[in-house]
Amino acid sequence: MGAGIIGLTSAFRLAQSGHQVTLFDPTPARGATWAAAGMLAPSAEISPGEESNYEMQKGAVSAWRQTAADLLAVTGSTLEIHDTGTLIVGWDASDRRLIDQFAQVATTFDADCRPVSRAESPDIFDRISPRISEGLLLSGDAWLDPDQAVALLTQALEQLKVPIVREAVLRVYGDADGVVAETASGSFRGATGILATGHLGLPTGAVSSGPHTIRPVHGVTARVQGIDRANLPTIRAFVRGRTFYMVSRPGGYCVLGATAEERTEPTVQVGELQRLLRDGLDIVPELETARVLESRVGLRPASPDLRPFFERLETRGWAWSSGHYRHGVTLAPIAAGHALAFVEGGA
Ligand SMILES: Cc1cc2nc3c(=O)[nH]c(=O)nc-3n(C[C@H](O)[C@H](O)[C@H](O)COP(=O)(O)OP(=O)(O)OC[C@H]3O[C@@H](n4cnc5c(N)ncnc54)[C@H](O)[C@@H]3O)c2cc1C
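Above are the sequence and the flavin-adenine dinucleotide SMILES. Below is the predicted complex in structure-token form.
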């Protein structure tokens, strides 16, 4: 239930392993997945005391390579994983102090992280404001295009004969014969059920057996055309204490992100977009003449401790896969592994 990146990847893994799968979603891949930039950035996401999160994300990047190989085998098309790394820069002296602090933490992990300067490596500073002459290069990071991942997963599911029922599941339950998902048009039976409903959490009938709850964390990315930094590192910046990133795809398409606010309306406010674009203009002045294509908004599914979980529910036969917060694209193949273990009786 739920055809965001978590549900799609899980359904693919299950179907490819020989299980019969039905996926439910009234608006497939239009949740948080729609807004995501697609960074697979274990190193840039390092934070103090979070070694296990770092290791999990590194494992997830490897798992995406396997998923890409599996998708190629089914669809004949390549899901591109771009190993560009990340360049972290700071706008002013206090932002550069934040980078120094980050570097101190990163060196206690095994991250491939080194200081770089414009004088030594002018290429990677291409299009970046001339007032920025130093940064930190994280070589292990990558990115993929979530739209491409969704398109290939959807194509693979079609080829594996997985129906996508374009309806919301209104109620779930389980009995001695298996699980039931009820939609407006009827009841669907199965052996097991997995909820991958992102920030929308549990539907009627689903009862958590653990401490998990989900809150939405609002985020916006802006899509622009006209800055070609293809194959160069994703830029991450501290700008007057705020964070900014720019993922550059081939052909001059860039994803600028991302805002983070504790609100639930899936709307883009002028102020948040203005702050995002202003920070972008400071770091990459040539954005002045780039064309704005669109902005996308999504609600990240955040658990109280900001960690993902895969929970067997009290409701018989059902499990809940959520809490992927800022890392759901990265962690999707890991969630898919949990889904397979659950269905095969191991989780
Ligand atoms: C601005 C932004 C930028 C991000 N950038 C990155 C990034 O660079 N890298 C990264 O790893 N992660 C990133 N993320 C995080 C990532 O997008 C999320 O963690 C991930 O998309 C969560 O996936 P999901 O499938 O759980 O949720 P969603 O994508 O929200 O999908 C949930 C789906 O469930 C469906 N659903 C809900 N209720 C029901 C129901 N009752 N019946 C049927 N279907 C239902 C919804 O319609 C929806 O399609 C970003 C998020 C945002 C908002």
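The two ends are 18 Å apart (CA to CA).
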